[in-house]
Amino acid sequence: MPNETSPASAELAAHDLPAMRAALALARRGLGLVWPNPAVGCVIVKDGRVVGRGWTQPGGRPHAETEALARAGGLAHGATAYVTLEPCCHWGRTPPCADALIAAGIGRVVAAIQDPDPRVAGGGLARLRAAGIAVESGLCAAEAAEINAGFVQRVRFGRPLVTLKLATSLDGRIATASGESRWITGPPARERAHQLRATHDAILVGTGTALADDPELTCRLPGLGHRSPVRIVLDRELRIPLAARLFAGVRQVPSWVVTLPRADPVRQQLLLDAGIVVIPADPDADGRIALPGVLGLLGERGLTRLLVEGGGRLAASLLRAGLVDRLVWLHAPLLLGGDGVPAIAALGLDRLAAAPGFERLSTETVGTDLLSTFRVHPG
């Protein structure tokens, strides 16, 4: 993402770095809670002391700058505001944050990245400059861009960022030949999987996984139940029973079913009467639900970060269509062999050059398991 300006010098960046990193940590608090808005953090510093902190609140408002200014009060006058995303300059459900910073008498703004939203796109920084505020951008740009990769994806391409999560044996199997799968990975790895759910707007599975595993798809870590994502299942024939666990408690944790328009209308109405959202989606050439269209529909509903947890056919379909942006792979230290159930169904590849490519972002040990995170290769 292009930057308005870069920090004036290495000395300046070193002086500002701790404050921006604190703002980035605040921004991460909003992941999974603030869609369709971006997750933003703001730290206000005056005379070397933090006088205000804020992050985007659940549902996307109030914004981070508004929260930080409220905490800073009169101390905001002449202070420096560090924000992880360019302050907005348009009216939505809240007034422009750029105007709030101007009205508070902020003397300087350091923004990590510009806002890709065409309603902003540099306009917020320009408005601050026009008001006589010193403005820099580009500090910690890569970190800020990764935090809001989902928001950027939705603005630019109309769909959420897709993260495929796999928990497998070393040879890429998710179950034995008999179907036994609980548990391949250990308790610490399973906790990390729940933490991952808490940072996503929604979680997606296919019909096969829903019928075979009857998953609840909630975040069941102590104190994080309120961060359970929207539960989404692809079910073109509406075969999943209403008693399925992923439909439990839909008033607290929403459940969405994506199906074909021709699906049984009586069954659709039963789902609607139970409080479940039914989303008709167009079929592909084979009569299955067309995944690019599904992601577009989810983007229209405001989703920015989508976690995919199963199964192998769904994973393969997304990979074949080039729709996987991040890959989180938990490897357990055991082998299940060629007769085990593969995590990814056949991709139909006959050339290595056609294989989906990823670049590794990180690797860490989680209990006895190994967790690796990848980003789709830009090439």
3D architecture notes:
- This protein has 379 residues and is α/β, with parallel strands linked by helices.
- It is built from eleven helices and 16 strands.
- It has helices at 10-28, 64-72, 97-103, 123-130, 141-147, 149-157, 187-198, 207-213, 265-273, 291-300, 312-320; strands at 41-46, 49-55, 80-83, 108-111, 134-137, 161-169, 173-175, 202-205, 230-234, 255-259, 277-280, 305-310, 326-332, 341-342, 358-366, 369-376.
- The strands form three sheets. Strands 11-10-9-8-12-6-13-16-15 form a nine-stranded mixed sheet, with helices on both faces. Strands 2-1-3-4-5 form a five-stranded mixed sheet, with helices on both faces. Strands 7-14 form a two-stranded antiparallel ribbon.
- A hairpin with a 2-residue loop joins strand 1 (41-46) and strand 2.
- Helix 3 packs parallel to helix 4 (123-130).
- The longest helix is centred in the first third of the chain and has 19 residues, at 10-28.
- Mean pLDDT is 92; it is low at 1-11.
User: Percent of residues in helical segments?
Assistant: 25-40%
As laid out across the biggest beta sheet, the strand order is: 11-10-9-8-12-6-13-16-15
The average pLDDT score comes to: 92
Sequence stretches where pLDDT stays below 50 over 5 or more residues = 1-11
Whole-number radius of gyration?
Answer: 22 Å
Helices and strands: which structural class?
alpha/beta
The global form is: globular
Enumerate how many helices there are, as a single number: 11
In whole angstroms, the N-to-C terminal distance is: 17 Å
Give the percentage of residues in beta strands.
15-25%
> How many β-strands, per DSSP?
16
The biggest sheet amounts to: 9 strands, mixed
Secondary-structure element pattern, one letter each = HEEHEHEHEHHEEHEHEEHEHEHEEEE
